[in-house]
Design goal:
Helices cover 62% and strands 0% of the residues. It has five helices and no strands.
Length: 136
Amino acid sequence: MILKCRVLYLCRIACVLVSIVVVSPGLAKERQVPLKAFLDDHCYHCHDADTNEGGLDLTSLDGSFGRSDHFQTWVSVLDRVSRNEMPPQSEGRPEAELRDAFLGSLHGKLHRSALNRQQKFGRVVFRRLNRAEYAN
């Protein structure tokens, strides 16, 4: 009886793993939106080098997310779009699925960049000692 339960459990795990491997690539392709396409359609007409509304020029940011100032700007973009502050209601808003796909794609790129930076430099670069630590 115990052996039968273990076999059934292993079969369920195998089915789940196979479904993840087979189905995930299709879902990932379906959900990811190229950042440039979304930005071209919804962002660059207000946030380019010419108009520069709000002091934000998205065309000047590189796509590598390597520089910390660019990374922080992209995090701000992610926050503003996720809170439905951007694009404004007066402009054409994207469909919810397209917006969610853009947010997922941008979040994934930011997460990978932060993880790469953390693996390269560690979690904390420099930290000051507090009074108790200094006294010890």
